[in-house]
Every structure is written in structure tokens, then in C-alpha cells.
Amino acid sequence: MKMDVQKLTAQKAGSIELPDDIFGLDPRADLLHRMVVWQLAKRRAGTHKTKTRGEVNRTGAKWGRQKGLGRARHGSRKSGIFVGGGKAHGPKPRSHAIGLPKKMRALALKYALSAKVKDGSLVVLESTEVAKPKTKAVKEALHKLGLENALIIDGREVDENFARAARNIPNIDVLPVQGINVYDILRRDKLALTKAAVEALQERFQ
Question: Domains of the chain by range and CATH?
Fold first, then answer.
């Protein structure tokens, strides 16, 4: 399929052919959901930890007479029923990562790209090069392009001036093509790819 290429000034700069095997698929919501769950699970630190009764600093001595005081026959203050006692079956440091085959992850990325094309939410830019890192100028340019809430994917390296200017704009994310992922694509209303990013994606899926 053909798409218009635009400059940051919102002027047309020719067209580009997008391969149907990457941008023309019929998206599957179930696979996109699995991919997002996989990404969010993998990024969890898993450093949560509570102390068991063997780790808390409480006396282990029997703290009352067996009979006569009206108390239960507790043998330790470390029990989980007391304030300051250990936590029974509490969380332990672990990995939350789940498995997802590499081919399914690649297919999910294609589905995410195709979903943006299907919704009319894909914009192809000639480049993101700007002369100076001016946030106001970049914000006005993105407004003309209709990129108020968008993920912008550049080539192998992001233009430094553009990245510095765009990082102060809310709801705008800028990533190199190596960092493209399903979660960030879906969480933004629009997706903007530079010509360099499109070429890199074609090489990646060959």
C-alpha cells in the first residue's frame, strides 16, 4: 500500500510503499493482549518482600503463664496474629516474566503496526531533523501534523535536537527503531514513523 510522506512542516514530500505483510494484516486482539501482558509482566521488578516469623526481631519466649491470666497459650511473639509478628505466606523476590515465543512477539508487532494503519492513525515522516532544540517550534509542528498524543519512531538514532525538544511535550514519546514495542504503540493515539524507521522495519522482518 502507498502512503504519503510528510515533512515536519506538514508539507507533502512524496510517497512510500508499505509492505502488506507488515502493515496490511488483519489485527488480532487476543495476540496483542498477550503481548502487552508479557511486556508489563517482564518489566516488574519483583523485589517485594515481607518478613516471616523466622526473620522478625521478637522474643521467642513463652510470654505468659499457662493458666490463670486469661490469655491463650502462645509460645512466641513472632506469630503472625500479633502486631510486629511475621507475615504468613507473604511475597518473596521473584521474576514475574512469562513465556511468549519469539515468532508470536514478532507477529504481535506486525499486528500493532497494521492496527494503526487500519485506524488511519499512522503518519510517515521524511525525517525528524530540526536545526535547534526548541520545544515550542516542535510542538507547533506536531500540532499541524495532528500528533497531539503520539509515539514517534526514528531510525537507528534519534535526532538529538528533536529528542531534546520533544521530551518536554506531554503525551509525546520518541524512540529509536530498536525500541519499538507493542505496548507503547497501543498506548498512544497515533504512530509516526520516519522513512528510516520504515526501511529498518522492512530489514528486520525479512
Answer: 2-45+97-204 (3.40.1370.10), 50-90 (no CATH)
